[in-house]
Design a protein that fits this description.
The chain has 496 residues and is α/β, with parallel strands linked by helices. Helices cover 35% and strands 23% of the residues. The chain folds into 3 domains: 3-99, 3-Layer(aba) Sandwich (Udp-n-acetylmuramoylalanyl-d-glutamate--2,6- Diaminopimelate Ligase, Chain: A, domain 1); 103-329, Mur-like, catalytic domain (UDP-N-acetylmuramoyl-L-alanine:D-glutamate ligase, 3-Layer(aba) Sandwich), CATH 3.40.1190.10; 338-494, Alpha-Beta Complex (Protein-Tyrosine Phosphatase, Chain A). The longest helix is centred in the last third of the chain and has 19 residues, at 415-433.
Length: 496
């Protein structure tokens, strides 16, 4: 690709040097520059690519992209290769990556799902619905990146711009017709999805999370909102009308809007909802008519997720019959109310709930389906939003009979210090409930074993926080650890 084609993909650029040069690669890492490649200097949280221009040129960079004002004019004048100056090099990286890979999102139906909770389940439902209609569809999200027989372990909910556009290109080459993508607030704030053409965007909800990254809830919301303000007028926005932030999303987008809800009037509405440990059943009233739906997914929050996916399916032209088939076909989502059955007389569930709202939804779901006590194992992640720790503790204690407070991914924090920040909330929740008790086991394996040991016939053991993850981050290292495996081992140990 010629450098001129690269420049044409960008907005408001200033150029220095010949644009007729052939560009053979693209990177934002000076250590990975190949001869003839284009180096995009990005300022990160740990380092600034603008400090490594000389290294990039020495490695053979054919041209560089910099942010206006970050590099002295005399340095650029003597750099020896063509220079493109842009207002935002992160955004430029996404646009360039898209152009370099042939703008793959323009050749796919792209469905983006954003929100604090429900993204993963909603994307799995969307994928199942499209597959029921005979559509070849890829998936990008927290658990994995999947297309055809390919399955790539996910390092981020939404990959970086270079990896994302490369994935989309591979999906096009593999014959995919659509892709369903979780879109995180980090990805939107950091312009990872720049260059993606979304035809449909879903807003699930917004509750406190990631305030270690975002300044406050308003900043967090505005990051999410970017997905909807970028939509074209012919695109479709599908918005949770029961969520307090939903109305603001509707007002901000120029796209066509469908709302969905259980409690309020909406374009897609659930009626006659029935819930049990075996799943949910309800009637969905939609712009295309009414349809009876049944799903193995458990809980009221999954009724919202199903409605969102139904709207997404309708936006792609999927008939109601195929939508019902797709909803019913999804057996489970990894680490989302995933039951561990080793023949024990009580129920064990592993769930990814790691925010106050997600834990509340998990526990109130448990309240509706339980026959015995609720025993909850949970912790809070280290090096993350500390403000949610006592809030999660309060919710856990308020809606459980027994709480086992433990470690999640402590990262570089002291696990005991994290637990100390959780406990005031636990004690407040116990006072509000007027019942219950709590135990502390900083060792997560021991905590799970204790919860299983305490369980009696009919009880419901909830292991919250890590879900599908098969590791635990201690310090800066990932150690093998899967709640589902550990729970099964603990259950089997009871029989020995």
């Amino acid at each position: 690709m010629r450098l001129r084609e690269c420049a044409d993909a960008l907005d408001g650029v200033r150029m220095q040097g010949s644009l007729d040069r052939e560009i053979t690669g693209l990177t934002d890492d000076s250590r990975r520059v190949s001869p003839g490649g284009l180096f995009v200097a990005v300022k990160g949280t740990q380092s600034d690519g603008h400090r490594f221009l000389a290294q990039a040129v020495a490695a053979g960079a054919g041209a560089i992209v910099v942010e206006t004002g970050r590099v002295p004019a005399e340095t650029l004048a003597s750099i020896g290769v063509p220079v493109i100056q842009v207002g935002d090099s992160r955004r430029a990286l996404g646009l360039l990556a898209s152009r370099f890979h042939g703008d793959p999102s323009r050749r796919l139906k792209v469905i983006g799902v954003t929100g604090t909770n429900g993204k993963t389940t909603t994307t799995y439902l969307c994928k199942s619905i499209l597959e029921a209609a005979g559509v070849r569809v890829g998936l990008i999200g927290t658990v994995a990146y999947v297309f055809g027989e390919e399955r790539v372990a996910a390092a981020h909910t939404t990959p970086g711009a270079l990896e994302l556009q490369g994935l989309l290109r591979r999906m096009v080459d593999a014959g995919m017709q659509a892709v369903v993508m979780e879109v995180s607030s980090h990805a939107l704030a950091l312009e990872r999805t720049a260059g993606c053409q979304f035809g449909t965007a879903v807003f699930t909800n917004l509750t406190q999370d990631h305030l270690d990254f975002h300044a406050d809830m308003e900043d967090y919301f505005r990051a999410k909102l970017r997905l909807f303000t970028a939509l074209a007028s012919e695109a479709r926005a599908i918005v949770n009308g029961d969520d307090p932030y939903g109305g603001r999303v509707v007002e901000a987008t120029r796209a066509r809007v469908w709302t969905y809800a259980i409690d309020r009037p909406a374009d897609l509405r659930a009626e006659d909802v029935q819930m049990s440990l075996n799943g949910v059943r309800f009637t969905a009233r939609t712009p295309a008519g009414s349809v009876a739906l049944r799903s193995r997914l458990v809980g009221r929050h999954n009724v919202h997720n199903i409605l969102a996916a139904v709207g997404s399916g309708l936006a792609q032209g999927v008939p109601l019959e195929a939508i019902a088939e797709g909803v019913a076909a999804l057996r489970n989502v990894p680490g989302r109310f995933e039951q561990v059955d080793a023949g024990q007389p009580f129920t064990v569930v592993v769930d990814y709930a790691h925010t106050e709202d997600a834990l509340y939804r998990l526990l109130t779901t448990a309240q509706t389906v339980r026959t015995g006590r609720i025993i909850t194992v949970f912790g809070c992640g280290g090096d993350r939003d500390r403000g949610k720790r006592p809030k999660m503790g309060r919710v856990a204690a308020r809606y459980s009979d027994v709480v086992v407070v433990t470690s999640d991914n402590p990262r570089t924090e002291d696990p005991d210090a994290i637990i100390r920040e959780i406990l005031p909330g636990v004690e407040a929740g116990l006072r509000e409930a007027g019942r219950g008790r709590y135990l502390i086991h900083a060792d997560r394996r021991a905590a799970i074993a204790e919860a299983v040991r305490l369980a009696q016939s009919g009880d419901l053991v909830l292991i919250a926080g890590k879900g599908h993850e098969d590791y635990q981050v201690i310090g800066k290292e990932k150690h093998p650890f899967d709640d589902r495996v550990v729970a099964r081992e603990a259950i089997e140990a009871l029989a020995r």
